[in-house]
Amino acid sequence: MIALTNFNAIRFTQALKTGVAAVLAVYLTRLFKLPQGYWGAISAIVVMQSEVGATFSASRDRFLGTAVGAFLGAVFVTLGGVGVLWFGVATIATVLVCQLLGLDQSYRLACVTVAIVMLINGVGSPWRFALHRFLEVSVGILVALIVSSLPPRAPGQLHNPRVDV
Q1: DSSP assignments along 34-68, one per residue
Q2: Do residues 68 and 95 lie in contact, with contact meaning Cβ atoms separated by under 8 Å?
Q3: Could you tell me which of 162, 96, 86 has the C-alpha nearest to residue 117?
Q4: Which pairs with CB-CB distance under 8 Å and at least 24 residues apart come from 155-158?
Q5: CB neighbour class for 34 (10 Å; exposed up to 12, middle 13-18, buried from 19)
Q6: Which of 123, 163, 147 lies closest to 35, judged by CA?
């Protein structure tokens, strides 16, 4: 049986804002001719929370993790290519760098970005690929922050747990 008692205006607004943010992120990444604009939509969806403060926190973690991962992924591809064992070394180094920088909430996202840069990158510069990844995610984060701050806002009754993807 469907629990209609869980459906209310706050949850509808959250769903609507999430959908709007995802679509806007796709449009903006296409406008800027970023090759994998779906990462903008994915980032917008991942960081959207019912409260602006929670969206900001999730956005900060995703932004920093993506920046570190894009940089380290490009460094490791440049230095040693894309072998699986080298990817393992890059992952270990990424976790350690995040720990050294005090980015304990960002290391998983940094490692995901390293994986994308190292394992998905096709022909071309790893630096360009890493930059595109960073920009695509940044567009999604910015859109989510703007959309989540628009009225109506949740009065703090609904709190979504953080989701790291």
Answers
A1: -TTTHHHHHHHHHH--SSHHHHHHHHHHHHHHHHH
A2: no
A3: 86
A4: 155/10, 156/51, 157/10, 158/10, 158/11, 158/14, 158/50, 158/51
A5: buried
A6: 123
> Which tokens in the block code for residue 147?
């959309």
Q: Give the pLDDT of residue 121.
A: 65
Burial of 159 (0-12, 13-18, 19+ CB in 10 A): exposed
Element (H, E) at 127: helix 126-149
Looking at residue 157, its pLDDT comes to 37
User: Per-residue pLDDT averaged across 57-83, rounded?
Assistant: 95
Model confidence pLDDT, tens digit, residues 109-159 = 999 999 999 998 667 899 999 999 999 999 999 999 999 999 886 555 344
Task: Note whether 88 and 76 are within 8 A (CB).
Answer: no
